[in-house]
Amino acid sequence: MIGAGAIGAGTAWTLARQGHPVVLVDPELAQTPERHPKTTLTGTSASLGILMSYVFRRSSGRGWRLRRRSMELWPQWADALHTPGTPLKLHSGLVQLAASDQEASLQRHLAEQRSALGLEFLPPDTLQDAHPDWPSCRYGGLRSAKDGRVDPLLLQQALRQQLQQLNVTLEATRVEQLQRGQGGWVLQLANGNQVAAKQVVVCSALASQALLAPLGHARPMEPVLGQVLQLQLANAEHLSSQWPAVLVSHGVNLVRHGADQLWLGATLEPGTDPDAAAAERLRSLEGDAPRWLGDCKDVGRWHGLRARPSGRPAPLLEVLEPGLILATGHYRNGVLLAPATAEWVSEQIDASGHQKRMLTDP
Ligand SMILES: Cc1cc2nc3c(=O)[nH]c(=O)nc-3n(C[C@H](O)[C@H](O)[C@H](O)COP(=O)(O)OP(=O)(O)OC[C@H]3O[C@@H](n4cnc5c(N)ncnc54)[C@H](O)[C@@H]3O)c2cc1C
Question: Where do the domains of the chain lie?
């Protein structure tokens, strides 16, 4: 497995639990996942961990199927990964505020179609009671009982802990080259070692292109930078007890952090350099922010990169040739789609007839 973000580590965990011998390679394994404000983070560490599935507008196609399957699997993942040291939890409840009457009527229609999936339309007065002084509440909003979020840093810590318990080999270094070998694949590592494997799963986001190009597989991806702002409220009462796990206004996600902080994210900026003006636009919620949000103090920010496939829909889930599996390019939804992606990879490996090791083997 190349890459230990949500996709690579989640897939390695799934395969190891099924009895496959797994080697996971990523230089990030050398340090505990953290959010350094000055460096460009991996997608998973930068992510807010929002699981936005049932509010997705389309009701058919691969994107919808992957989202639904992931949401079926997430409760099992959270249960299995929850330990006293890594108290991973699904925080459920997502409210999307409508930005116009037209959007409110689309939301009302979706809520009618998906009431069995936990969607309901909240009329303006209900929202105004929960969030007074919030201008966007005037149109109403869509509530999803099952969408929500997980903590992506805790997710990575929990996965790593269990990977160690499952005796997965963790190589804290970079794969420099991927080559065809005799009956399989050879990974040349930056520490000088080699790993030979019958199956390779490439989950290294933007870096995947450079590993695949020499093998004749062109899978271009563009970086789309995201910034997240950490705000401290002057008056914590604005974060009422009715604040959902995620509140979405004008496409900006607002996540409560502790008693008196809000995280706002994330910008969508083509390229790799954060733009201060983009962060300011995020903070103003398209000029529709409640006044108290303007009074909040900036206490930090971070940024990271998403991998967006060029000319193909996200994500890239492909068996490129026997034993070479690509599972990357998840763009804005890699945390959400980690469980369904891991399941897809395991199905491809099973279909190839790859032998599992008995879990009792040394
Ligand atoms: C600001 C921001 C907010 C986001 N919010 C959300 C959200 O709320 N919900 C959601 O679902 N998604 C969100 N996303 C998107 C999500 O984070 C990504 O889709 C997801 O993290 C992709 O996971 P990944 O494992 O494919 O990639 P990454 O997490 O980027 O991991 C790729 C890994 O590959 C490793 N790697 C690279 N090159 C090599 C190499 N040569 N050898 C070995 N290893 C290598 C890297 O070190 C890295 O650890 C957000 C992204 C950003 C930037």
Answer: 6-53+153-220+310-351, 92-146+223-309
* Ligand 1 proximity of 340 Cβ (cutoff 6 Å): no
SS3 193: coil
Domain 6-53+153-220+310-351 matching CATH 3.50.50.60: the answer reads yes
Q: Check: pTM over 0.70? Answer yes or no.
A: yes
> How far is ligand 1, taken at its centre, from the CA of residue 41, in Å?
8
Tell me, which fold does domain 92-146+223-309 have in CATH?
A: D-Amino Acid Oxidase; Chain A, domain 2 (3.30.9)
As a whole number of angstroms, the distance between CA 23 and CA 184 comes to: 14
**pLDDT score for 358:** 40
Query: What residues contact 255, with CB distance under 8 A and at least 6 apart?
Result: 48, 50, 149, 245, 246, 247, 262, 263, 264, 265
DSSP 119-135: EEEEPHHHHHHHSTT-G
Does residue 224's CB lie within 6 angstroms of at least one atom of ligand 1? no
Distance 196 CA to ligand 1 centre (A): 25
β-bridge mates for residue 319, sequence order: 325
Q: In this structure, what token pair is assigned to residue 139?
A: 């149109």
Pairwise CA distance, residues 70 & 150, whole Å: 13
Q: Which of 351, 314, 338, 316 is nearest to 51 (CA)?
A: 338
Rounded to the nearest whole angstrom, what is the distance from the C-alpha of residue 344 to the centroid of ligand 1?
18
The predicted-structure confidence for 88-146, as pLDDT tens digits, reads as follows 999 999 999 999 999 999 999 999 999 999 999 999 999 988 887 888 889 999 999 99
> Where do the DSSP E strands lie in 252-346?
252-257, 261-265, 269-270, 297-309, 316-321, 324-328
